[in-house]
Amino acid sequence: MSWWAKGLIFENCACTLVCPGHMHFSQLCTHDRCKGYWALRFDDGAIGAVSLRGLRALIVFDTPQRMIDGNWTQRLIVDPVADPDQRQALETILLGRAGGPWERLHAFVATELPTEYLPIDIADEGATKRLSIADRIKAIVTQIRGRDRSKPVLFENCFNQIHDSTQVIALGDSDYKDEGIEFNNAQTHGLFSNFDWKVS
User: What residues are paired with 196 via a beta bridge?
Assistant: First the structure.
């Protein structure tokens, strides 16, 4: 199945400033469990005849300290602005059923909690990205200060399945709770970039 998508991705997890698992899943994360989220804003894209433009989604995760060991717990949340075809399209892509980066990540998931459909608010303020879902999550990531404060601190030429090769290093705060995953992160690992995925 061919598909493509472009947009904004940002994340926060429980690790200190740079999550070792972000660099490679074989590295030990800061704590016994790595808990956090990936927030996704689709600016354009399509799977078959279904447009992904304007959609928003959130993936929350709870993984072991060495992420490559698998046994992840994960939940997908989709903003209900998506119509039934778009909801199915996002599930197909983000639950790893259509190839590409999410198929590789989903291989580590042991427990897939049911997809939920909740209004997702994503605010892009340049150096700061905000995320909220009523009664579920409130989160923020803000780029760290560099020597030249007019520029972000970056990872360049960094290999990652879902992020662009250039990523802005940030600190994040997030508070999330459902019946399967719970975390409260304060001034911990954050990143954001633009994604560009394509499966032919």
Answer: 6
In sequence order, what DSSP letters do the residues of 91-107 get, joined into one string? HHHHTTSSSSHHHHHHT
Distances from the Cα of 60 to the Cα of 9, 30, 66, 174, 185, angstroms: 13, 18, 17, 11, 13
Q: Give the residues across from 89 on adjacent strands.
A: none
Q: What is the mean pLDDT of each run of 10 residues along the chain (200 residues)?
A: 96 97 95 98 97 98 98 98 98 97 97 98 98 98 96 94 96 97 98 97
CB 166 within 8 A of CB 185: no
∠ CA(59), CA(63), CA(65), 5° rounding?
145
Residue extents of the structural domains in the chain: 3-193
pTM score: 0.97
* Rounded Cα–Cα distance for residues 37 and 56 (Å): 13
Contact 200, 10 (CB under 8 A): no
Neighbours of 123 (CB within 10 A): 11
